Structures are given as C-alpha cells and as structure tokens.
Amino acid sequence: MPVKHTIPQPICSGLQVPELGKFPFTIHYRGDKRDAILVRFEGLVYAYLNQCVHMPKALDCEQAHIFDETGRFLQCSMHTICYDPVTGESLSEICAGKSLTAIQVREEGGWVYLVDKRAVMSG
Ligand code: FES
Fold this sequence. Notes:
This protein is mainly β. The protein has one domain (9-121): 3-layer Sandwich (Rieske Iron-sulfur Protein). It has strands at residues 9-13, 22-29, 32-41, 44-49, 74-75, 82-83, 102-103, 105-108, 111-114, 119-121. A hairpin with a 2-residue loop joins strand 8 and strand 9. FE2/S2 (inorganic) cluster binds at residues 52, 54-55, 57, 76, 78-79, 81.
C-alpha cells in the first residue's frame, strides 16, 4: 500500500483525551496496521503503539484504565509492568531498558494531530 505523507493528520479533539485517560486509534506504521493509544499526563498528550514490551499484548487488554492507581505511571493490565508516561520507558525490572514505541503527535488549536513521518492514520 502506498504511504501518503499528509502530515499533520487529525486524530481527535483534545477533549477526547482526558487527564489520565486514553484514546485508541489505528495507524499504518512502517507498512503494518497497528493499534496506538493517546494518553494525557500532567496536561500533555503522548502517543505510543499499544503494545507492551513484555508480551505482544495491548496495555489495556485486561482493564479499561491505562494508568496505575497512583496516576503517575502507565501500567499494562496483563502483568502490571509500569512505564514512564512521558518517555514510555519500562520502570519494571523484568523489562528494564525497554520502552514503548513512541508516536509523534502534536496538540494544537484543540485538536491532536499525528505528525510522525513513519505513520499514517488508518481508517
Ligand atoms: S504483557 Fe504487559 S506486563 Fe506482561
């Protein structure tokens, strides 16, 4: 499939990503259809491929929420590995040194846009 680089591409309204909340979306990333997720932490929006570094599971595969009970860390609901929401870095010993795959997004004028040259929105 030819990749169109029509960036920035709108993902959703910023209102659809509440603090400590999530917004799932689908992209073509390096030629593959992948699930991704927007999260908001301390007012800023971040995006990652929605795949844990431990096993190929979605972070929210078992529970709807995406942050741990402290609201400080992203947490995979399968085996509770925690991640820094800003960098995507694993903070758990068993996957130390690994990180979620960050997707470049930008929030502007009330909208969140995909601005990652490796990815295009998927219908
Ligand atoms: S699959 Fe995510 S912590 Fe094990």
